Amino acid sequence: MADATYGASTPTETEVVDDERTTLIQKRRPRRLRRSVAAAAALILCGTAVKVKRGSIREYRLGSDVGELGEYPTATWEAVNNDSVEKVYDLEEHILVTTEVNNAYVFYKELLFGRLGRATGTLDPSKGVRVKSHAYATSAWNTFQSNLDDKLVKANSIVWVSVVNTMDTLVAGGMQKELNAMGVADEVIYWGCNSGETCDGSDGELLVGECVYTYGDDVLLHNTLLRTLLSYELPLTIVLASDLDCKTRLPVTHHKIIYAGDSSQAQFDEYVSRGGDAAWFPFGYEGVVTDDEVDELVENVEASLKAEKDTLLSYSGSVIYRKPSRVRLGEWAISGGIEEMEQLAARSGLKLDVESYGMYGMDIVHPEGPEVEWTAGVSDPDSDTLQGRSYYVLAPAGDVWTSGRMLEALTFGAIPVVDQTYKTDGGLSAKGCEDPALHWHEVAADTFVFVDDWPKLPETLVANDALDVEKRAARVARLHGVLRRVADDARDAILTPPKNAKTVCETVPLFDDELQQLVQQAYDYYTQPAPEGAPFGGMPWFDAFVENPSLPTNTCGAKDLSASNGAKCFDEACALPSAASFDCKAVDTTV
């Protein structure tokens, strides 16, 4: 077994254990952390059985022992899946823990090198990894920033980061003193209606700033950490796992950029066309946060791949106003679409199993209707193998640009039925991104089913082998090749170090008069007159917001869904940038 030289650490000899499972070795026992922080960390260091010597099995289970004061421990895990691995790559990574990062991380760790890869047959038996992993809770991101400033992050390290949750907090809360000095009272920049009828700010919450940046044209100007990463003098592999990836236009640098999510497929192509070193990842696996959930996912996939297919089409998902493609699907379903699908399932000799829930959306479209839910054939709605027993699984667009549904169906062995480039609702579900289904077209055009409009679903399924037993089975058989191609490309992206020549970046700061002008704009926004019809005593700037399903994410939307989290400012006027400009250029080595 040979070692590869990629990574910051010097390769060392490692005994290849005789276990055929992926190993995760905990080198240092972590300290105890509060339960709330432990839950957020559980995914990142999820445990796997380790066979230390023949006949002896030791399991490391993360549980709640994950450090203290918001700092996660450094851990070392390795994936050496057989006794004839040709290369073991030494990697070092830094993980800024968020939900979106977690989703992408499970794809990387479990499908590319771990238990999901073994279950689906997508592992590369010739390659193994040893990974030194540093994870940071949100309360410890300043520690990572300090590590960058002190140049402690080693060359070729992998950095996992979410653009959306690393924004500078320069909204009304962050600039509160400046706005107060201009006469904007606390009750205007607080939201005080959560626990009473009076909106006077007396028990208000500070504004939440994670949504406003969606409306900026240049995410980099609001994100100090991302600028610091791109300016880092040593090459890094930066994995961007965020809904905002498609709105993040990066300068070409000596770093490798991995865009994790369907939303950024066109963005990846554009970046490469400018000479950038980049790769694309799927969004990842949603809702897998703890060791037990990873175990359950692997067990369900293993069982699903062995199960006999008895269902033509299955789907289970929420329908709310911010998921317009699903509202469109529901409109068709309750207007006779369910009956059409039941007839198609009967013709195929298979079951139909679809259900909707969380119906904030359908009740707006059909307020007069007594029945807005659409359900059919739900004999086992909680079955863990339903997707695997299905030939086709619906994957409509949700309330964000990225989606894990295509990858999930593919992993379980079902054919994803994808909203054709999110056009079924006129493009609203694309949330401003360009063709979120682009890469799936490139790798799975002859396997996935792409639907132009949901009323065309029955005829589209028939045209894609739903009633032809042999062709339908052949289409399912091609799924493994699609998954293997995606996994191989992603694995190569992770294991290949950055290749671009050295660059230097420059941040131009804001002058005092520029910052003062921005604060004045925010002042004007927060002190605008109340719109006609606004409730007395309310916050005019908040009441002036007009809901639009094309705006990204669920929590950045309807007031009755988000008021409990504090008011959201949806206007770019609330987002004060922390820099005037940012640019990078290649270093002239001829001088």
From TrEMBL:
Residues 390-479 form the RXYLT1 C-terminal domain. Pfam families: RXYLT1_C (PF24785). Residues 1-21 are annotated as: Disordered. InterPro entries: RXYLT1_C. This is RXYLT1 C-terminal domain-containing protein. It comes from Pelagomonas calceolata.
